[in-house]
């Protein structure tokens, strides 16, 4: 495995510091991930680099290790124990602790070329729950307040992402990359299909959203703020990752100010509304008591609208099937 950076070639060599990918652990991490994933997969590489910094600091401060060749099973076991203590004391959520260990597994496999240091995140740190227990609902008035506050700050486009997420149940990427001109044409028939930016190739013609007042508002607003000659919310010379990292970060405090925890809650709010419309009642985690038939219909409709294509992932949006899963 090899990679070229600034005309310098780095390739795995167990006789060299950090397996031949650089003298400094942080730089070596960036190089080995580039060698493993290529120049693409920017977000994946960036995420692993950021998480692995925690392990690099641990190795340096606790074991005086600055060469990834010196990482042993006992070092990683000690790291897992530290993460476990952090979870117990509320320093980390179990999901984040698992993500930190998962990154160690990925990066060390890239460095070494084997899985001899692998430790299962779920077995060592406990299982996380994907079942929603927090109420994500917000109002159209809250969304409009966010848009109004974002405008003078030059954040109209990322506010449009929030509007699309709330009105159509889109993910951030889907909203940013949506072909707005296509949606405008489709809207004339009374519904639109979510196609661009779908996660994991989950594009489906079945994912159709009815055009009502809130959807009309969100689409009209997005069209009004999109860059000239662009079919979506990105400028022609702009990368999605740059837009997200720059503008999304700036809008988050405004969302929180108006009672919206983060972008994902906007999508979840729409999917809860879709469940309620189909099942005729709120999901159980919000106090509803649907029949098995109504609950099944609600979850099926929610999964299609979410772009999942299956029933099970719905628990992350509409909770479990029993009221006792609220706590």
From TrEMBL:
Chain segments annotated as coiled-coil in the UniProt record: none
MF term (GO), any: DNA binding
Pfam families in the cross-refs: Integrase_1
Organism: Marinomonas fungiae
Domain Integrase catalytic, first and last residues per copy: 156-269
Region span, Disordered: 286-327
InterPro entries in the record: DNA_brk_join_enz (IPR011010), Integrase_catalytic_putative (IPR024456)
Protein name (database record): Integrase
Annotated TM spans: none
């Amino acid at each position: 495995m090899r990679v070229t950076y600034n005309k310098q070639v780095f390739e795995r060599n167990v006789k060299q510091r950090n397996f031949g990918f650089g003298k400094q652990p942080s730089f070596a991490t960036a190089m080995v991930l580039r060698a493993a994933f290529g120049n693409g997969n920017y977000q994946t590489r960036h995420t692993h680099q950021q998480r692995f910094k925690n392990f690099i600091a641990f190795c340096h401060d606790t074991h005086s290790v600055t060469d990834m060749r010196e990482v042993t099973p006992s070092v990683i076991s000690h790291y897992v124990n530290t993460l476990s203590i952090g979870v117990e004391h509320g320093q980390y959520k179990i999901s984040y602790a698992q993500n930190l260990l998962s990154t160690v597994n990925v990066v060390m496999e890239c460095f070494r070329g084997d899985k001899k240091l692998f430790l299962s995140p779920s077995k060592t740190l406990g299982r996380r729950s994907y079942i929603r227990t927090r109420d994500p609902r917000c109002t159209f008035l809250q969304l409009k307040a966010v848009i109004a506050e974002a405008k003078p700050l030059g954040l109209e486009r990322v506010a449009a992402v929030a509007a699309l997420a709330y009105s159509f149940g889109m993910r951030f990427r889907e909203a940013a990359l949506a072909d707005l001109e296509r949606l405008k044409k489709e809207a004339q028939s009374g519904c639109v299909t979510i196609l661009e930016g779908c996660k994991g190739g989950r594009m489906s013609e079945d994912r159709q959203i009815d055009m009502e007042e809130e959807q009309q508002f969100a689409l009209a607003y997005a069209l009004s703020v999109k860059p000239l000659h662009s079919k979506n919310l990105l400028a022609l010379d702009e990368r999605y990752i740059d837009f997200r990292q720059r503008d999304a970060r700036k809008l988050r405090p405004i969302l929180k100010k108006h009672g919206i925890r983060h972008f994902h809650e906007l999508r979840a709010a729409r999917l809860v509304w879709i469940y309620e419309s189909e099942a005729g009642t709120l999901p159980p985690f919000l106090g509803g008591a649907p029949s098995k038939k109504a609950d099944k219909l609600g979850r099926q409709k929610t999964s299609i609208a979410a772009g999942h294509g299956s029933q099970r992932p719905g628990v992350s949006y509409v909770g479990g099937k029993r009221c006792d899963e609220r706590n």
